[in-house]
Amino acid sequence: MNADRYLLTFIDASHNAGAPIPAPEETYLAQGGRAAGFGHCADAVWDPVRMNNILDHFASAFFGLHLAGDRDKQTYLDLIPNGKDGKPTPAHNYWKGFKRRTAVGLVFEHLPASG
C-alpha cells in the first residue's frame, strides 16, 4: 500500500461504543412498555464522552500532520502500540497528550506505506 495506516483499538469496547453525544432522543423513551433503549447506545466498559475525546485527539493529530502539514503532530502518532506497556523514558513520553496510565485499554497500531 502507498499510504500510512493507523488503527486505534479500545480494548473490550462493544460494537456500539463511541455512540453519538448526546444519544438520539429516541433512545431515552420507553418503547412498548419496556425500559428505554439507551443501553443500545451505551458501552459497559468505555464512557462515550471519553472515547469521543480520544478519537478527537488522534483525528486532530492525523489531519494536522497530513492535511495542514504540521510535522510536530507526528509525535502524537509515534507511540508504543499498547498503552498498558508505555512508561515515560528520556526517549519517549508515554503517549503524548495522555497522562501516565490513562492509555491503558488502548492499542494504537501503525503500518507505514510500502513501495
Report on the structure:
It contains 1 helix and 2 strands, in the order βαβ. It is α+β, with helices and mostly antiparallel strands. It has one helix spanning 48-66, and strands spanning 5-10, 106-111. The termini are close together.
Tell me, what's the shape? globular
Unreliable segments (pLDDT under 50, ≥5 consecutive)? none
Q: How many distinct beta strands?
A: 2
Task: Provide the succession of SSEs.
Answer: EHE
Summarize the biggest pleated sheet. Answer: 2 strands, antiparallel
Using the CA coordinates, give the radius of gyration.
Answer: 17 Å
Tell me the fraction of residues in β-strands, as a range: 5-15%
Q: What structural class should be given to the helix and strand makeup?
A: alpha+beta
C-alpha termini separation: 7 Å
The chain-level mean pLDDT equals 82
Q: For the largest beta sheet, what order do the strands appear in spatially?
A: 1-2
Oligomer: single chain
* Helicity range: 10-25%
If helices are DSSP runs of H or I spanning 4 or more residues, what is the number of helices? Answer: 1
